[in-house]
Amino acid sequence: MIEAVGLTKSYGSKTAVYNLSFQVRPGRVTGFLGPNGAGKSTTMRMILGLDTPTGGSVTVAGHPYRKLPNAPRTVGALLDAGAKHGGRSARNHLLSLAQLSGIPASRVHEVLEIVGLREVAGRRSAGFSLGMGQRLGIAAAMLGDPQVLLFDEPVNGLDPEGIRWVRDLMKRLASEGRTVFVSSHLMSEMALTADHLIVIGRGQLMADMPVRDFIVQNSTSFARVRTADAAHQGSLAALLTEAGGQVLPEQDGALKVIGLELPRISDLAYGADVRLWELSPHHASLEEAYMRMTQGAVDFRSSDDPRGAGSGEGMGMGAGMGAGSAMGAGTPGPPPGAQPPPGGYAPHAGYPPHAGHAPLQPGGMPQQPPTYAQPQENAR
């Protein structure tokens, strides 16, 4: 298990991670999400002892990483697939890691087979594609057969078959009782892979809960309704509104109904002798829920190209980007009266706000924009 308590990392007067507390439990895949610059990579580096916390603590299997008796046999990690000697073959790269950690050479052949690199084991890694480099990095993480595994963007550069293989691998590792902590920006893949989510924004905890609960609490489900006769659409809309639903017209002529269950809508339509051609539920995706929660924690937002907007001219991108291209634009805010999600940790009492970071207000968002640090080039 990985446990962080009041974890804080400052660089001078700027704070990259503030008062972060969470647990990553064995037996499930825990997704680690957040916008670019949120502090995910910094957090993972502190877990692995690569960065020293300014405050708080983080332990793996009950010990700080640097005090683990044989860390490579307890923890495996993929943070940067490019962290290898390009002049070495895949086999020799793994052999050198195995020898440093007292791992038998036979294990090298096993992990090369697992990741599908057996046929190219003798090739220099400098000639590997991005996807092959990712596979080699995963092989290195699994070399010591560890009980705790951390992966930062493990499917980067992989083709669809490779992405599915990584998904199945993560699930299998978790099913064996291992602790699996995965950072990714691919929401669709996280929805299929993760059982639990830890979401941070601007270095602070925003959510710590199962995937299903996260989607429910940060989205609104609705029903799409279409009548057989357009003349009855208005009367049905009035009836549904009177019953307590919120009815909004869709661009294709259907009705978007919020606040009423499908059986209730069907009963009301039947009672009014209105035939329906469509009555379908819509459940938000993880991406929609994630965008809704983190829209106030995004530091980098795109904007329209003024040369191409509305004219189809310019750089070829403007016409296709449209008015909603800015990240989070048009995304509805949290529902009125929303409470902070359960499952998170209470603020740790020994760590006052650092310079550059404002305390969180109810709901998990900073009260004012903080001065935020991005210590690494690839900070997330």
Would you summarize the structure shown here?
The chain is of the alpha/beta class and 380 residues long.
Question: Can you list the strand order of the major beta sheet?
Answer: 5-6-7-3-8-9
* Classification by helices and strands: alpha/beta
Number of strands: 13
Tally of helical runs: 12
C-alpha end-to-end distance: 23 Å
Query: What integer value in Å does the Rg equal?
Result: 25 Å
Characterize the largest beta sheet: strand count, sense, and whether it forms a barrel: 6 strands, mixed
Instruction: Return the average pLDDT rounded to an integer.
Output: 81
Characterize the structure shown:
Helix content is 29%, strand content 21%. The protein is built from 12 helices and 13 strands. It has helices at 40-47, 71-74, 90-101, 105-115, 130-142, 160-175, 187-193, 211-217, 233-242, 262-271, 286-294, 318-321, and strands at 2-11, 14-24, 28-33, 55-60, 75-78, 148-152, 179-183, 196-201, 204-210, 222-227, 246-249, 255-258, 276-282. The protein is elongated and about 75 Å long. The two termini are 23 Å apart.
